[in-house]
Amino acid sequence: MQEVKFVFESSEKSNVSGKCTWESPSNIALVKYWGKKEHQIPANPSISFTLSNCKTTTTLHYTKLETPSKDFQFDIFLEGEQKDDFKPKIATFLKRIAQYVPYIKDYSYKIETSNSFPHSSGIASSASGMSALALCIMSIEKELNPSLSEQEFIQKASFLSRLGSGSACRSLEGDLVCWGTHKEITGTSDLFGVKYPFEVHENFKNYQDTILLVDKGEKQVSSTVGHNLMHDHPYANNRFNQAHDNLSKLIGVFKTGDLSQFIEIVESEALTLHAMMMTSLPYFVLMKPNTLEIINEIWAFRQETGLHLCFTLDAGANVHLLYPEHEKESILAFINSKLVGYCQNGHYICDTVGFGAKQL
User: Fold this and answer.
1) Which residues contact 170 (CB under 8 A, 6 or more apart)?
2) Which domains does the chain carry?
3) How high is the pLDDT of residue 123?
4) What separation in angstroms does the CA of 85 have from each of 65, 75, 134?
5) SS3 labels along 20-82
6) Mean pLDDT, the chain cut into blocks of 10 residues (360 residues total)
7) Cβ neighbours for 285, distance < 8 A, ≥ 6 positions apart
8) Residues 258 and 324 sit within 8 Å (Cβ to Cβ)
């Protein structure tokens, strides 16, 4: 599929002003996307659980200009506070998508956004934030083109989201979303995310994700910097092949409900992501001492109880604990008795695999 499909064709319909609000969740990758080509094209395919409680709510106010602007006119507010330091990233996003949504230069904007989780702490605020903003922009397009189907709307919103933050294209739908072409998964594309199309065992329904906030501060290394380090990485090609292989294995895992193999793949993916950062030039250690303590506690607990608790990590110190719903009571008791002490100020977030974005 070519990108030209997503170019908006002119419409006689015109909006004077209005507003729209979308709520979009974050997601947690099981097979990690790490490394990209030009135009936010992933170097390998990925798959993620869409979350429910970790989300961004964005309201976009738009007002028609008398004449289209050469630049983008907008103000952005986070939790009610004006955030001019966010403007360069948003401006870059708008510049990238302008050829596909040329009407955005016809308006000035006020962007009001809020997160249900700490910003820039490794819980993919860019994924939920960029997808929510892309959905708001697509709401303007829907008014200009009422014949736009729901599938076309979501697909283009995912396409636009990708140009703001790669993983954002996996946040629009649920509960499992793939991004990146994979030969065994129908309909996958490098241009947008797609719902996982195959059978998923009951073991993975309402899967739990408890996020241990080891470090709620700004990320040590931005995702953009981390991805760029893959360009000349000595182990990059093997890593990309590993991602394809692990995604192939997950097809069988999701069908049979094999939780033991699921744990093996997910934890290997998490550790590989951090290994790539530790073996790049320059190199980074993104885990904190408490991250390692938590991992060791998880391994000991799993060996002692036989319960199916596992961890995954994004590019930061926080730990996502993944486990089936039917083991929730015992695992939450373990978290509160053994793991909460490793969290900054004892903070953690309980989440569940969810069903994507919604308009408010």
Assistant:
1) 27, 29, 46, 48, 50, 127, 158, 177, 178, 179, 193
2) 3-198 (3.30.230.10), 202-352 (3.30.70.890)
3) 60
4) 24, 11, 20
5) EEEEEEEEEEEECCCCEEHHHEECCCEEEEEEEEEEEEEEEEEEECCCCCCCCEEEEEECCEE
6) 84 80 96 93 97 95 90 93 92 96 94 81 76 97 93 97 96 96 96 97 96 81 86 95 98 98 98 96 94 98 98 94 98 97 90 94
7) 274, 277, 278
8) no
Give the global pTM.
0.94
Q: How many residues belong to the chain?
A: 360
Contact 204, 254 (CB under 8 A): yes
> Distance of CA 218 to CAs 117, 121, 125, Å?
13, 5, 11
The closest alpha carbon to 131, from 95, 92, 156, 158, belongs to 158
- The pair of structure tokens assigned to 256 is 């049979």
How confident is the model at residue 184, as a pLDDT?
Answer: 98
Tokens of 349: 């977030």
Q: Are 177 and 194 in contact (CB under 8 A)?
A: yes
pLDDT at residue 258, as a whole number: 98
In angstroms, the CA 338 to CA 154 distance is 41
Cβ-defined contacts of 36-40 (< 8 Å, 24+):
36/166, 36/227, 36/230, 39/163, 40/96, 40/162, 40/163, 40/166
Record the tokens describing residue 91, joined without a space: 């401006």
Question: What does the alpha-carbon distance between residue 353 and residue 328 come to, in Å, rounded to a whole number?
Answer: 13
Tokens describing residue 152: 């076309």
Tokens describing residue 77: 């507010």
